[in-house]
Amino acid sequence: MLIYLRIIKESFNFAINALKNNKLRTFLSLLGVTIGIFSIIAVLAAVDSLEKEVKGSLSSLDSSTIIIMRFSFGPTDIPQWKREQFPDVSYTEYQHLKKNMSETEAVTYRLNVNRETITFGGKQVEGVEIGATGSEYYDIESLKLLDGRFYNEAEANSGSPVIVLGHEIAENLFGQAISATGNKVRLYGRKFTVIGVLEKEGSSMLGSSKDGIIYIPVNVARRIYGDNNKSVFPQIVVKPEKGVDNDEYIASLEQHLRIFRGLKPTDVNNFFTNQLKGFTDFIDNITGQLNFMGMIISGFSLLVGGFGIANIMFVSVKERTNLIGIQKSLGAKNKFILLQFLFEAVVLAIIGGLVGLFLVWIISLIASSLTEDFDFVLSTFNIIIGMSVSALIGLISGIIPAISASRLDPVEAIRTGM
User: Fold this and answer.
1) pLDDT in tens, 255-308
2) How many other C-beta atoms can be found within 10 angstroms of the C-beta atom of residue 10?
3) Beta-ladder partners of 234
4) Which ranges carry the ABC3 transporter permease C-terminal domain (predicted)?
5) How far apart are the first and last CA of the chain?
6) How far apart are CA 39 and CA 305, in angstroms?
7) How far is CA 246 from the centre of its chain?
């Protein structure tokens, strides 16, 4: 065990001496490894950060949540002309599913309506996103209230003029000194009583966060827009109970809606059951492809870096031929020489990798400080990958020079060195 520790110590010293004595040569040789590791870890860190941000934007909704509407989240085999003939989901269908679907935690009806201007006194906020939903949406999306409450089922069904404000909307209208709840705001030319304010969420990569949304009972919007208005499109949002078999639940859901619509067994579904899980799987697929492409491109830099390490090791063997001959004449075994040069190659590669990781870390700090709403993360897993790849490149690049050094004849090595 002591002999191997000695090998490690001596090899590390040789590697450091190589850096000190041949700074320019070593720098140029390690530049490829540094760029390669920098490229790989930068791509992995960027994609991981992007994936974390996107999924964080969807975290309020459970991945099992199902959204039924006449549009599809992703690609579909149904031709466009046929999709354009699909009817919108109706409030009656929502009531039917709510009454008949078992193993359902919550189901609600939602209208996607146009943005509007909301006013209070002399203040107004333009282009406000409106969430016209049933009361169940509060549980489905796990909304969090800073003040007040969300509207209940009776208020949603009767279309009571009540409203829940996003944090940013409440601040713009009332400021921080005045409590928004209990006040009346004007929307659609009508007065709405503020009954709740949502907690601050922060901005999202996928668009505006809930800070800029207001929620009103869906039947208020239905009275304003009507049930056949093509400027809006409705959705039925369903959240199954935990532990329910996903495929069986969707099949049962589709069957209930098919029967209600009177579709024949040979007819295709004239609606789409979109699931957030499919969207997150799509994100995973995209990020996986980005990682793969980034690693392929970075691999060329590592290939150049590997040749650089091999080159510096061949030169090192040539310069230390006399020393190798003396070591072998004093009893050093081939294995000792082999491990010595292998470890030196690995140390050199790791040094290049550490520089690459340091550059990624510096850039991640700069990127995070410049982009307030995006957190660039350099994870421990990516650091481990970077160091492992560096060590592997050093091992592969140093194996042939190390073998050639270990096989030198001691007499010829001493004579050549002289």
Assistant:
1) 999 999 999 988 889 999 887 665 666 666 776 776 677 677 667 767 777 777
2) 16
3) 111
4) 295-410
5) 34
6) 12
7) 24
